[in-house]
Amino acid sequence: MSKPDAPVQIEPEQAVAEAAELGQKLARGAELFAKLRDDEVKIATTPKDEVWRQDKVTLHHYRPLAPVKVAPPVLIAYGLIGRYTMADLQEDRSLVRNLLKLGVDLYVVDWGNPTRADRWLTLDDYIDGYLDECVREVARRHKVDKVNLLGICEGGVFTTCYAALHPDTVKNMVITITPIDFHADTEQDRLGHGFINLWTRSLAPEDIDRLIEAHGTLPGEFMGSVFSMMTPMRTLMKYNLDMLEVMDDEKKFLNFLRMEKWIADRPHHPGEAAKQWLKDLYQDNKLINNAFVINGRTVNLSDITMPVLNVFAKDDHIIPPATSQALGAKVGTKDYSELPLPGGHVGVFVGGKSQALLGSGIAKWLAERQ
Amino acid sequence: MDPAQYMKALAELWGQGGQSFMATQQNLLRDMAERFNKAGENAPAGAPANLFDPAAMTQANEAFGRLWSSAAELSQTFARNLQQGKEPDPLVSGLLGRIFDPSAWFAGSEGMDAALNRLAQGPRLADIWNTERQMLAVFNAWTALRRRSLEHNTVMLEAWLAAARSFAKLLNEKADRKEALGSWREVLALWVETANKVLLETQRSEPYLKSQRELLKASTDLRLAQQEVAEFYSEMFGYPTRAELDDVHKALTELRREVRALERAGRDRPARKARRSGAARAAPSEEKPS
After folding, report:
1. B20: distance to nearest CA of chain A, Å?
2. Largest CB tally within 10 Å, which of A25, A200, A348, B214?
3. Angstroms from B75 CA to nearest CA on chain A
4. What is the pTM of this model?
């Protein structure tokens, strides 16, 4: 027996058993790892067709998985940080599939892979240019005046601005994990939450200008590092312990690798648009103050007169709930609802509980507002 | 040895090593800066800046590596000591060694640093040796980046020490209460929880944010200094410069914007016309006196 005052008391038999278990896990994992090929780790597999393209931006229409029950169609807009594939990570964890199965007619816009050549693209181009073109194209194809918008994260900011500037073309707006008041992170003092807000405010505006001058974009790997900083121990443990936990179970290991694939796919954020994102929004908080200007027009949140569903994750450390919920007091509609879901920023899309609630919650809300 | 005493000794030893290394490194950098300043005062414009002592920098980097190796070795000892009174299992010791490895903190929290370095380190110094003025600027920027990186890593080193102290304290408290951790998973869970809290608190601290900002600025400065050299060579050999390419891309973006606007105007015109004619047809009836 170990001495009673020793802080760690592990019986020899237990240590041997743990070591043996670990050894077996490693052996099984190594075998599985050797067997798997990258093309077996597939994400965003729900069938869809490209229906429109301009510059690097493409619009896709998902093939139906059930008779359409919800009209008009829904256009999904992700942001420029990360990619829309998060909404369709794998067959059993897919907002896209869940919505299609519930009879929602679905489109998604893919912003492509911006490079330094796209340095001069602004949020004005994305919101009032490409997104507007996509909305028009969907409306044209379905012979309707208005479409439903579903914005995710930065894409939620795009749809919010768009809905305020073009309320006549938006039937309903759903935003998920979207920051509106970029300084509301200070309202909740939760350790590890809202670090991006704090970190961005610690920079001087000229730091951001020079960063973009140097790289032409906000490099994808740079933002990846910022996200990693937000979950420090998890990042450190990911490839030795988390992976070890799952590597002998093919299903779990493939889930792990799919998530890694999504994380590794980090497009660069066009430089001028990144300046607006970081300086106008994160630093100067212009959106909530109705001071953000797109193409010479001020985005006034009270011009959002269509029904709004605001979905946020209760444990979102990247977009703290208060930063999203701030929208409620500013919109010009009385039909404003919130759908708080368990989980974090990404968990809301892929976590077992949340993603089931997310798809059905959105579909039901839309169906009630056709 | 009592775990608290052990951890205290570990933390102090490492802390002393780190501080002594930092002092040496700062002296080296100060010395380098002075030599470069003198060079700037005395050397004629365009004279070869043959002042860099690569051996000293290599030595400094090696010393830095040695410090972290010894810290890692100490944490391996820590991992072994957790298996008190038992024959340490090499596999378990190896795994725990990795978990308690402070250099992993360095590497993990240095993700930003590493990413910045990858982005900043374009052409190697050897390729730009003949452009003295720009080279000097690049080199100064590179030295500044190393310094900022060391400053940031010092903040992280302090965080590791704080986490190690908290961990030791918790272990000690458990021992006092006759509670014990019964498996390595419990040991690990306690370490992860303790370390995570310290790291997250560190990240919100002013020294961390300041060192991050300085690191970002230094890496940007290096990248811009390198671009100046690239501009010089591009012009010399008649290749398009970065600035020229940026201009072309800007013009292209603006043209695309105009095309989009024209296309939209073209599409909207019939709709507007239809609305106007509809309004005109409706107007007479609207003007009827009631």
Report:
1. 27
2. A348
3. 16
4. 0.79
A278 secondary structure, DSSP code: I
- In the set A153, A212, A246, A288, the catalytic residue is A153
Contacts of B164 in chain A (CB under 8 A): none
pLDDT single digits (tens) A35-93: 777 777 888 999 999 999 999 999 999 999 999 999 999 999 999 998 999 999 888 88
Asked if A54's CB is within 8 angstroms of B182's CB, the reply is no
Name the average pLDDT for chain A: 90
Report yes or no: A340 and A312 within 8 Å, Cβ to Cβ. Answer: yes
A–B interface: beta-carbon pairs under 8 A: 168
Apex CA A306: angle with CA A301 and CA A307, to 5°?
A: 105
Tokens of A139: 């409306």
CA B232 to chain centroid, in Å, comes to: 28
Question: pLDDT digits over B206-243, tens only?
Answer: 999 999 999 999 999 999 999 998 998 898 899 999 99
Q: Left, alpha or beta for A55 (phi > 0: left; psi -120 to 50: alpha)? A: left
Indicate which of A10, A53, A266 best probes the interface with B, i.e. most B CBs within 10 Å of its own CB: A10
Does A4 contact B178 at a Cβ distance shorter than 8 Å?
yes
Nearest to B73 by CA among B102, B105, B110, B52: B102
Two structure tokens written together for A308: 């709004």
CA A297 to chain CA mean position, Å: 27
- B-interface mutation test, from A16, A115, A233, most B Cβ less than 10 A away: A233
The pLDDT of residue B34 is 60
Residue A153 appears among annotated catalytic residues: yes
B147-151 average pLDDT score: 81
Give residues with Cβ within 8 angstroms of B64, minimum separation 6.
Answer: B21, B25, B150
**pLDDT class for A16, splitting at 50, 70, 90?**
low
The mean of the pLDDT values for chain B is: 69
Does A14 sit within 8 Å of B199, measured CB to CB? no
CB contact under 8 A, A116 and B183: no
- pLDDT (tens digit per residue) in A234-262: 666 666 666 767 777 888 888 888 888 88
DSSP B46-103: T---TT--HHHHHHHHHHHHHHHHHHHHHHHHHHHHTSTTS---HHHHHHHHHHT-HH
